[in-house]
# Entry
Amino acid sequence: QVEVVESGGGLVQGGESLRLSCTASGLTFSYAMGWFRQAPGKEREFVAGISWTGSSTDYTDSVKGRFTISRDNAEKMVYLQMNSLKPEDTAVYYCAATPKYSASPRLTDYVYWGQGTQVTVSS
# Structure
């Protein structure tokens, strides 16, 4: 049974940092991981992705230089370090797993999803 669980969301002020964590258990294949977010009234969008080995990462333009995705396969953990947060980063953040080796920005490539964690950035 596969389970993906996010944690670490919260309420912060603009300019502050948060680190999101994601644990993915029950996966029996190599998998890339991604972080997505969905703001109220908007579609879910790709934020960052990391390959199975962690050697390759990808980011949406709006978070480049501010967010960093990483993973620890021994601990079955994926992280999203978010610095210099802005009010427009406010959203529910989702962690997801894809059986692809490399990270993908396509939502439909991801098979397993967590329930999401709320990130709210005040101005």
Notes: The chain is about 0% helix and 50% strand. The first strand starts at residue 3 and ends at 7. Residues 58 and 64 are 9 Å apart (CA to CA). The mean pLDDT is 96.
